[in-house]
């Protein structure tokens, strides 16, 4: 269904009833008490109704993040000897549905092949241990598109790691930050979530020279921030442009009485001392998922990162 903005004119301002709120990045966390396979806890992601459907959500990409570290029993001397070696790990999607009364399963040989599908594989140097990501786009697309929304289960096979390293799956969940555990980052095309009413004149709709908000996208790769930011890949920061000097304003358009008094004085005295500027009048925050200096991953909401409205304060 096509959607179009609806505009209302109130005095000399344009009110826009639109602004589809869109969710383009989502982090999913596995159940730390889920099923186990061959002695290893599976990365088990439950489905929730608010994740959308294939009719409204298109998965662009998906990555599974987890830590790969030296095993505690590997001595420092062995770590120095093997630091330049390569290891291989495989990621399997597990297709069986465990009995809820028995969450431990052992599969080997042909049985494992019947219930496991290779989702991805990765070879890396032991110089690059720590947080790693594995592309699981196709698997997550199939999961979103499945008719029955079952749990998505991953099994990490590190048998090609030579007994040197192993994936770090779960810490003590009573104490650890959830961002220390594995997570699934899903990047989707925008979906309709809700409507918001906002007063914001977009420059694509403004009269030439009028104060307005210009949409402006910053791609983190262009400024070198992609090396430490996991998500998003960029965002609309926006900026303000236009002239405020010739705008006829009614009293209700001023942010406060001080601004109105200064503007009325400027007009009455034809003063060039005070020149109103088109400037941000409303900001919003944005969420970042990023690496800290010590290699941990955290999520933080940064205030005043997005210009929502511009005006002549």
UniProtKB/TrEMBL annotation:
<keyword id="KW-0964">Secreted</keyword>
<feature type="domain" description="TGF-beta family profile">
    <location>
        <begin position="195"/>
        <end position="313"/>
    </location>
</feature>
<dbReference type="GO" id="GO:0005125">
    <property type="term" value="F:cytokine activity"/>
</dbReference>
<comment type="similarity">
    <text>Belongs to the TGF-beta family.</text>
</comment>
<dbReference type="InterPro" id="IPR015615">
    <property type="entry name" value="TGF-beta-rel"/>
</dbReference>
<dbReference type="InterPro" id="IPR017948">
    <property type="entry name" value="TGFb_CS"/>
</dbReference>
<protein>
    <recommendedName>
        <fullName>TGF-beta family profile domain-containing protein</fullName>
    </recommendedName>
</protein>
<keyword id="KW-0732">Signal</keyword>
<keyword id="KW-0325">Glycoprotein</keyword>
<keyword id="KW-1015">Disulfide bond</keyword>
<dbReference type="InterPro" id="IPR001839">
    <property type="entry name" value="TGF-b_C"/>
</dbReference>
<dbReference type="InterPro" id="IPR029034">
    <property type="entry name" value="Cystine-knot_cytokine"/>
</dbReference>
<dbReference type="GO" id="GO:0005615">
    <property type="term" value="C:extracellular space"/>
</dbReference>
<keyword id="KW-0339">Growth factor</keyword>
<dbReference type="GO" id="GO:0008083">
    <property type="term" value="F:growth factor activity"/>
</dbReference>
<dbReference type="Pfam" id="PF00019">
    <property type="entry name" value="TGF_beta"/>
</dbReference>
């Amino acid at each position: 269904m096509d959607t179009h903005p609806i505009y209302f004119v109130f005095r000399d301002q344009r009110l826009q009833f639109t602004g589809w709120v869109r969710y383009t990045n989502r982090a999913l966390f596995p159940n730390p008490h889920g099923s186990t396979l061959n002695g290893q806890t599976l990365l088990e992601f439950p489905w929730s109704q608010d994740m959308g459907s294939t009719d409204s959500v298109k998965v662009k990409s998906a990555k599974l993040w987890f830590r790969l570290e030296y095993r505690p029993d590997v001595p420092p001397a062995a770590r120095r000897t093997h630091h330049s070696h390569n290891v291989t790990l495989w990621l399997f999607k597990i297709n069986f549905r465990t009995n809820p009364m028995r969450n431990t399963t052992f599969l080997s040989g042909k049985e494992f092949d019947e219930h496991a599908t290779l989702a991805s594989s990765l070879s890396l140097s032991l110089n690059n241990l720590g947080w790693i990501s594995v592309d699981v786009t196709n698997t997550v697309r199939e999961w979103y598109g499945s008719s029955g929304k079952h749990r998505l289960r991953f099994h990490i096979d590190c048998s090609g790691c030579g007994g040197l390293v192993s994936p770090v799956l779960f810490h003590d969940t009573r104490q650890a930050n959830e961002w220390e555990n594995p997570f699934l980052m899903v990047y989707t095309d925008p979906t309709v979530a809700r409507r918001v009413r906002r007063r914001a004149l977009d420059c694509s709709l403004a009269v030439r020279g009028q104060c307005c908000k210009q949409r402006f996208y910053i791609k983190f790769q262009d400024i070198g921030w992609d090396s430490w930011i996991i998500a998003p890949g960029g965002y609309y920061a926006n900026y303000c442009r236009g002239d405020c000097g010739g705008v006829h304003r009614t009293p209700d358009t001023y942010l406060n009485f001080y601004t109105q008094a200064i503007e009325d004085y400027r007009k009455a005295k034809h003063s060039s001392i005070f020149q109103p500027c088109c400037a941000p009048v409303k900001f919003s925050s944005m969420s970042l998922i990023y690496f800290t200096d010590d290699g941990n991953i955290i999520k933080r909401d940064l205030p005043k990162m997005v210009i929502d409205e511009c005006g002549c304060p």
